Amino acid sequence: MKDKVILAYSGGLDTTAIIPWLKENYDYEVICCCIDVGQGNELDGLEERAKYSGAEKLYILDVVDEFCDDYIVPCVQANAVYENKYLLGTSMARPLIAKKLVEIARKENAVAICHGATGKGNDQVRFELGIKALAPDLKIIAPWRCSDTWKMSSREDEIKYCEAHGIKLPFSTDSSYSRDRNLWHISHEGLELEDPANAPNYEHLLVLGTYPEHAPDEGETISLSFEQGVPVALNGEKMKVSEIIKKLNAIGGKHGIGIVDIVENRVVGMKSRGVYETPGGTILLEAHAQLEELIHDRDTFAFKKIVSARFADLVYEGKWFTPLREDLEAFIKTSQKYVTGEVKVKLYKGNIIKQGTTSPYSLYSESLASFTTGDLYDHHDAEGFINLFGLSLKVRAMIGAQKIDE
What we know:
This protein has 406 residues and is an alpha/beta fold. The protein has helices at residues 13-26, 46-52, 64-78, 89-108, 123-134, 155-164, 202-205, 241-254, 279-295, 298-316, 323-335, 366-369, 381-389, 391-405, and strands at 4-8, 29-36, 57-62, 112-114, 139-141, 178-181, 186-189, 220-227, 230-234, 237-238, 259-265, 271-277, 341-348, 351-358. The strands form three sheets. Strands 3-2-1-4-5 form a five-stranded parallel beta sheet, sandwiched between helices.
């Protein structure tokens, strides 16, 4: 019997061309595995296409809820954003995909896992770190790095290769954006975006949303409810996280929310430019942050910013299955014990505008914050505090003045 290889299969041109390439160069039995993290209609016709291309079998695994509950929620609780802009849509999904590929590899007794990520991108790092952490014995095949046998460098090359192997597929040679989509977001790279001097062609580019100037002239107010940092209801209606994100994507997309144009620093050392659409995720993160600022004390609030940045870096780098990320998540979960309440926001032409936040655990005290004197605070107490808080500054200034006089 032939050895088996598990191919991370999206159904696109790249991974379709990889099927005959694997059989030709490795003499493997190819088993395709598509992990459904919310790609929508991109999965239509996959089974027929995979088998027509030479695959022995195709698995399609619906892991949308697992993606939301075990990967998205921890990132929301962490307020994890890479380089202040990127909401980690692709980064969060890759470790889950790697995990499922390993599970299928064990089920099928496969000897290798193959992915179609290029040699310049982050995804090769994320896939392979996940596989190495979970199954260090499995061989990893990355065709785009196999320069001796992978001779294709364009869509035209891949289509010709498929045709030469008797595979006729509904792919055109038209250039388009390189996109990655899941329930959380969609990313766009390529074409005019490759030159940072160019403005994005939003009329052609956007999939989930509307450019803010074309959004409705009337705003829309919504409410989000959280329990221990987990979103549990939208506009008072209880629902699971995946349903909340779906509905927020539709609402936020309509109002031009969550469109980000970023030049980011890739793990492999180069800068890349992309446009991300994350309408629902942007609303969730903003609402969660508004709730935390009401609840966390000053020290926790400050330290969590540090943790959030490091957590985001680890997720971006593909280090999901690492002790540090797990330890940081433990702190984050503890910090969410009292992050319960309701956040109201108004969505208007790309903006998320506060409309009020409430929580039974709010540390905000109107009597303390007001200008009137209450039982817990005496204005005169501030004088002694300032004297002690600024003592080192005063001593330093006095010594400096003394030295000048000398």
